[in-house]
Here is the input.
Amino acid sequence: MTSATHLTTPVPTRFPDGLSDVSIAGDPLAWPHLAPEPLAHPSTVGDFAALARRVAADRDRWEPLVRYDALTRWYARLETGPGYEVWLLSWLPGQGSGAHDHGGSSAVMTVLQGELTELGTGRGPRALASGTQRVIAPGYVHEVVNDTLEPAVSLHVYFPGLTQMTPYPGHVLRQETVEGQGALLA
Here is the structure.
């Protein structure tokens, strides 16, 4: 006598309320159940610049938060994510950052309102009007100032998140006239 083995598909367990283990936990063989779609996070300079543009375009998000401080620049962290931070800063006329770098972090700076001036080593001042975006490499020494008569607001995305900002006290990056010629003093 030969015995035949029949392969059958297992029937899901039924519970008294009529539900099955598949209807409760989901189909264990379904791909989304095994590996949910990963969240999209910025990972390139272009992604971080796009993030800054998206946040900048959402005035309802940042504009009500802006404050001005007569003694120092005002700032607030708007967002953090895997490997980045987004900061909002305000600048009254005459306020500046002083010469500094961002340690091992890169940055994307976007001027949201007003105008700022960036001074860097090895070149003259760069006017940054509203809407201007700058990418700053790790270790780059620069200074940002509001040398206009109107307040300014800027957005800064640091990646990775800012853990170090090295000040360079006494390191002058302002352009001055020396004996009739422009000279960048560093």
